[in-house]
Amino acid sequence: MAEGLQTVESGADPMLAGCRLSVNLDALADNYRTMVRLSGKAKTAAVVKADAYGLGVEPVGKALAAAGCERFFVTWPEEGIALRRVDAKSEIFVLGGVLEEHAAAACAEANLVPVLNSPQEATVWMEYWRKRGGRRPCAIHVDTGMNRLGFPVADAAELAVAIRESHVVTPILIMSHLACADDPRHPKNLEQLGIFNRVRQGFPGVESSLANSAGVMLGAAYHFDLTRPGIALYGGAPAGMPNPMRAVVTAEALVRQIRFARAGETVSYGATLTLRRDTAIAVASIGYGDGFHRCASGSGVPLRETSVAGGHGFVAGQRVPILGRVTMDVTMFDTTDLGPDAVKPGDWIELFGSNIDIEEAAIAAGTISYEVLTDLGRRYYRRYVGGEAGSG
Ligand SMILES: *Cc1c(COP(=O)(O)O)cnc(C)c1O
Fold first, then answer.
1. Among 73, 74, 174, 189, residue to substitute to test ligand 1 (most atoms within 8 Å of Cβ)
2. Could you report the per-residue pLDDT of 108-125, keeping only the tens digit for each?
3. What local confidence, expressed as pLDDT, does residue 5 receive?
4. Is there a catalytic annotation at residue 49?
5. Which ligand 1 atom is at minimum distance from the Cα of 229?
6. Residue 34: band (very low, low, confident or very high) from pLDDT cuts 50, 70, 90
7. Is the C-beta atom of 230 inside 6 A of ligand 1?
């Protein structure tokens, strides 16, 4: 193993896998430090739900803890348990809360702090500790306008009283989530901020948290005591473009063949693309079976309603468009403009990373960087670069 290179196997043999992922843990740590700086006086947690947005909660959690992160958010108790295995110290919040006693027991055992989202969850957590005695922390999520998770504002005051009188549960965080933070001009931001500021009054002395990655960019009024970035840590744009974050993930596919086809021939399923010129085609081992979305199929291929240009790859120093439909295991790229010998079987085409911004790859597939990351398939050979192994 090369120095400074920590390799964590995903099960795929690097010599046999058709696609590979490189996760740069130093870039991840840099992005965390950027969020710490942008969060000003507030502390900065890391959201590592959905297996750290598909990148692996264990290596990501360790690298973030090494970068100074002491608070993490996951969604389900299972995710918190996985993180706890590699991180004995940090505070781990469970956004999905505890719906019944079994989940409460799991949180208790792994020392996870549930985020209570409803009166039912508050009752479950209080009952659990009333039976066993002792004071335990919880976080409280108030819904200020998303109608997703969280206590209705009208119930928050009553909840504060119930919790205070229970003498078994101590709120350590009151939080809410912004619906429109990625659009700084959206009036909903100020509206939610105002509601959140009012609700907080009912919980004196309890720390507050409102901002996700995009919320951090809205400015100090949104930071409170703790910010909760996710996507920006992994290289997604916290809001709009250009993207200020460092690319963390590079996804690449192995070129299997170079074919030459004549103008007038068709490419891929449905024969939806007719070539307008004689074309060199790099056939690459990546497809929707790997989470490379079919919606990224080549430009003009009729399988979506939007009119965005199709996806691209990057190889031999140039961008190459996808030809025809993305299939389960294989995708074709137009390498004609690169000249005859620029690409050979065994070369790698970048799908996104340092040359193709993840946000652009997402837009080409009609989706968002979050989904590009969380859909990354199991066939990728994964390599983790940097992090603790690199600094030691
Ligand atoms: C996912 C999530 C975050 C992180 O959001 P990003 O946009 O990825 O920064 C923060 N808070 C809550 C409640 C979330 O569900």
1. 73
2. 999 999 999 999 999 999
3. 47
4. yes
5. 9
6. very high
7. yes
* Angle subtended at Cα 386 by Cα 381 and Cα 392, rounded to the nearest 5 degrees: 130
Q: Are 43 and 244 in contact (CB under 8 A)?
A: no
Kindly state if the Cβ of 67 falls inside 6 Å of ligand 1.
no
Q: Which atom of ligand 1 is nearest to 213's Cα?
A: 9
Helix intervals (H) in 147-306: 153-166, 187-200, 213-216
Under DSSP, the state recorded for 361 is H
pTM for the full model?
A: 0.90
Please give the structure tokens belonging to residue 231.
Answer: 């996507």
- Give the C-alpha separation, 288 to 294, whole Å: 6
Q: Is the beta carbon of 141 within 6 A of some atom in ligand 1?
A: no
370 among known catalytic residues? no
Place of tokens 């007719």: 274
Q: Are 30 and 391 in contact (CB under 8 A)?
A: no
Q: What is the pLDDT of residue 25?
A: 97
Residue 2 has pLDDT above 80, yes or no: no
